[in-house]
Design a protein that fits this description.
Structural class: alpha+beta
Number of domains: 3
Helix content: 10-25%
Order of helices and strands: EEHHHEHHEEEEEEEEEEHEHEE
Distance between the termini: 120 Å
CATH superfamily of the largest domain: OmpA-like domain
Length: about 350
C-alpha cells in the first residue's frame, strides 16, 4: 500500500496517488486469475505512481489527474463547493506534523505583604490575647460548693461607727462659745470652740485632742461656756454619758475599742462561755479586721487594766476566741498588756492592724 499525500489547494482536496491505488486495485483480479491458471501474475506497474508521489512531495503542487482515469480520480477528490463527499474504502497513513507552541508570559506579582490592607504588625502577645482565659468562672464554681470558714456577719452591730456622741447646743445672741468634753477625773479630752452662735449639732468621733481613742466604758461629761456681747459668761454642765464599743477607720485598717465588761467571761453577772461558743462581739471584730486592705498585716490586741495580770489574761482570752475567725496565718495575731490606773473595771481592749 502506497502513502497518500493529501494536499489542499484552492477549494479541492486531491488524492495524488489515486492512480497508483487504482492500478493496484486493478492488478489484484489479474493476479488472482493467473493463479487459478497455474501461472504467476506479472507485477503491477507502479513506477509512474511512485515517481508522481516523489514529485508531489518535492514540489508541493497538485498534479493534474490523468485523463484516462478521470472517473477514478474524481472518486477521491473533495470539492470545495460540494458537501457530504463519501469515499469508498480508503486507508490513510501518516504522522502528525502540527505543533503549537504557546509562550506563557512571565508573571510578576507586585505585592508587598507588609503593606496589604487589613494586615497590621503585632506581637506574640496579640496572638495569645485572642482568647483571654477566664479565671473567675472556675473560682466561682469551686467556691459555690466549698463553704468558707470566714463568714461575714453583717447583722452584728455592737461597734458604733462615726460619732460616739452628739451635742446640740441651743444658744442665741452669743459672741463666742467653747465646748469641753471631760472624763471622770475632770480632765479635758476634746475641745470645740468658735465665734458667733454655735452650730445646731456637734459630733464627737471618740478621739482625744492628740488623736488617740478614748477609753470605752468610762463616764464622760461636757461643759458649754458662752460669752455674750456684753461680756457676760455662762456655763452649762451636761449630763454624764458612757462610751460603748466603737470603731475608727485608719490608713492601716479598722481600729476597734471596747470595754472588758462587754465580754461574758468578764462580767460576773453573766455565765461563763466555753471555748466552743464564740462571743458575738469578737466575731464582729474579726469580720471588720478581715475587710482590711492587707489581710496579711499583723493584728495587735492591746488589753489595758489596773493590774498587769488582769490585762494579760484579758488579752489572751480575746486572742484565743478571735483567732478562728481571722483570715490568714493565726500567728499574725499579737497580744500586748498595759497597766492603766484610769482603766475601767474589767479593763479595756483595742484591736487594730499594725505595720
Amino acid at each position: 500500500m502506497k502513502r497518500l499525500a493529501i494536499v489542499i489547494s484552492g477549494a479541492a482536496l486531491v488524492l495524488g496517488t489515486a492512480t497508483a491505488v487504482s492500478a493496484a486495485t486493478a492488478a489484484k483480479p489479474r493476479a488472482r486469475a493467473a493463479t487459478h491458471a497455474g501461472k504467476p501474475a506479472p507485477p503491477a506497474q507502479t513506477s509512474g505512481a511512485t515517481s508522481a508521489d516523489a514529485a508531489l512531495k518535492a514540489s508541493g503542487a497538485v498534479p493534474n489527474p490523468p485523463t484516462s482515469q478521470g472517473s477514478a480520480d474524481s472518486a477521491y477528490t473533495l470539492k470545495g463547493s460540494a458537501e457530504g463527499t463519501v469515499f469508498k474504502s480508503l486507508t490513510v497513513e501518516g504522522e502528525d506534523r502540527i505543533r503549537y507552541d504557546i509562550e506563557r508570559p512571565p508573571l510578576h506579582l507586585d505585592l508587598d505583604p507588609s503593606k496589604a490592607p487589613g494586615l497590621d504588625w503585632g506581637s506574640a502577645r496579640d496572638v495569645l490575647d485572642r482568647t483571654v482565659p477566664d479565671f473567675a468562672s472556675p473560682l466561682v464554681t469551686t467556691s459555690s460548693h466549698d463553704p468558707c470558714p470566714w463568714i461575714a456577719h453583717p447583722w452584728l452591730s455592737s461597734f458604733a461607727s462615726g460619732a460616739v456622741a452628739r451635742f446640740k447646743p441651743e444658744l442665741k445672741g452669743v459672741e463666742r462659745w467653747k465646748l469641753t468634753i471631760v472624763n471622770a477625773r475632770g480632765e479635758a479630752v476634746a475641745t470645740y470652740q468658735g465665734r458667733g452662735e454655735p452650730p445646731h449639732e456637734i459630733a464627737w468621733d471618740g478621739r482625744s485632742q492628740a488623736g488617740a481613742p478614748v477609753v470605752p466604758g468610762l463616764t464622760y461629761s461636757y461643759v458649754l461656756e458662752a460669752h455674750d456681747r456684753a461680756g457676760n459668761k455662762r456655763n452649762f454642765v451636761g449630763q454624764g454619758f458612757k462610751v460603748s464599743a466603737y470603731r475608727l477607720d485608719t490608713p492601716e485598717g479598722p481600729m476597734l475599742a471596747f470595754a472588758g465588761r462587754e465580754l461574758p467571761t468578764s462580767d460576773p453577772r453573766r455565765p461563763a462561755t466555753g471555748d466552743a461558743a464564740a462571743v458575738p462581739l469578737l466575731i464582729e471584730a474579726a469580720t471588720w479586721v478581715n475587710q482590711a486592705p492587707n489581710p496579711n498585716r499583723p493584728v495587735r490586741v492591746t488589753a489595758s487594766a489596773r493590774s498587769y495580770d488582769e490585762a494579760q489574761a484579758l488579752g489572751a482570752t480575746v486572742a484565743k476566741q478571735m483567732a478562728p475567725f481571722l483570715i490568714g496565718d493565726p500567728a499574725r495575731l499579737q497580744t500586748a498588756a498595759e497597766v492603766r490606773p484610769d482603766a475601767p473595771e474589767g479593763g479595756m481592749v483595742v484591736i487594730a492592724c499594725v505595720k
